Amino acid sequence: MAAAELGIITRKDEHYNGKMTLLVVLSCMVAAMGGIIYGYDIGISGGVTSMEPFLKKFFPEVHTKMKEDTKTSNYCKFDSQLLTAFTSSLYIAGLVASFFASSVTRTFGRKPSILVAGASFLAGSALGGAATNVFMLISGRILLGVGVGFANQSVPLYLSEMALPRHRGAFNIGFQLCVAIGVLSANLINFGAEKITGGWGWRISLSLAAVPASILTLGALLLPETPNSLIQRSNDHQKAKSMLQRTRGCEDVQAELDDLIKASENSKTIKHPFKKLMQRKYRPQLVMAIAMPFFTQVTGINVISFYAPVLFRTLGLSESMSLLSAVMSAGMVGTCATFVSMLMVDKLGRRTLFAIGGIQMFVSQVIVGSIMAAELGDIGGIRKGYAYLLIIFVSVYVAGFAWSWGPLGWLIPSEIFPLEIRSAGQSVTVAVNFLSTFGIAQSFLSMLCHFKSGIFFFFGGWVVVMTGFVYLLLPETANIPIEKMDRVWMGHWFWNRYVGQVREDSD
């Protein structure tokens, strides 16, 4: 297909005035702390659920199956609904919280939502670290889920609105880079905590989320509000102009301000943004808000993020070796690949990274599934050479995800919605993400038990579907001003039937 036929905007768009400013960089660094905590919470659960003292205290049946049961299949030893509830409770709490977060973010601004997220993270990490029973343990995860719900609602919007269009991709992927750093930090801490004598290392793992949570909470008190939000919530255009001048580092910001005011005037006519979101002209954005987070989860990444140490123990590796393997594959590789994505996303474009990552993930999943099918039986371990080969291809898979669906699954929804439905659209994205994550987290260990090595072919099939979806239905959004994003849908071969043809005089 030709570029125009796929809806790729090829003509050069006008740029707003401005440059990279220290205020924007520092503000976005503080806001992106929400990503570190999110990643930390993802990575920490898989590590502690593979620690024997943790299992013995809270999930003794799983510990017994792992240590003493020689009849249960390798793929089924961690199959416990209570154990998966520990992981997945965070995401169902985040799902519920995201709907409240939408109203807070729209009515009071992005900054208060970030503050609520930080406070919830602090409370959840304290309760988890001090847990003496399963109720306290899961209650702590629920509080963390509330924090994740507010952070994932507000932080991507904050980053997209603070950044200039030509830097928006890099800044937004900074959130996903922080998620990757959080996963890496969690895996490193788990590896060290497992070696603590006395069996209380898991408390260190769960409670250290309080460190980035404290930075986010205190930093949120000092964060400036985005110009978009200031205009949306008041008629003080001069205050918004002053903030825009500070964030852009120049005096002439009138062109961008005019677009923000126009978008705000449109948004204030909307009384029911969720109902507005269902209108035909917003069909492309609604489809992307649902499809992007759903597809992100069915890549199978949470097989690695949540359960990498559990998966490696399934292969017969020791507790310490499993945690070290998780550090290398899910942690270091993911962080480095996300950094590469941050550097390249505004140069290569979103669609190119999606294509590269999709092919890479599919090939590596097929190889991992094939090796496990041929070499790992129901009982006993796997030869060391094949175990290390699996770790290599798991790392290749993680890299493919980390420079494609990982960051872009959040970036695309955060940049495509007009202001009048932006909070509602982001809320749908977050809710679908949490619902899909909860489903995968709650069902994965049972799926592993029943599908065995076929689990990787299952997720590989989804990767083929989603790569085709992007190729056919996602236009390029790189370097398009966020308030001018309607152009990409008007020029797309499929979506223009919903939003209308591009006019020659369109601004």
From TrEMBL:
- State if Transport is listed as a keyword: yes
Out of the domains of life, which is the source?
Eukaryota
Major facilitator superfamily (MFS) profile domain boundaries: 27-478
A GO-annotated cellular component:
membrane
Q: Where are the membrane-spanning stretches?
A: 20-40, 82-102, 114-136, 142-159, 171-192, 204-223, 286-308, 320-345, 352-374, 386-406, 427-448, 454-474
Per UniProt, which keywords does this protein have? Membrane, Sugar transport, Symport, Transmembrane, Transmembrane helix, Transport
Subcellular location per UniProt equals: Membrane
An annotated Gene Ontology molecular function: symporter activity
Per the record, membrane topology reads:
Multi-pass membrane protein
Coiled-coil residues? none
- Tell me which Pfam families the record gives: Sugar_tr
The UniProt similarity line reads:
Belongs to the major facilitator superfamily. Sugar transporter (TC 2.A.1.1) family.
PANTHER family named in the record: HEXOSE CARRIER PROTEIN HEX6-LIKE, SOLUTE CARRIER FAMILY 2, FACILITATED GLUCOSE TRANSPORTER
Q: What is this protein called?
A: Major facilitator superfamily (MFS) profile domain-containing protein
Q: Which organism is it from?
A: Prunus dulcis (Almond)
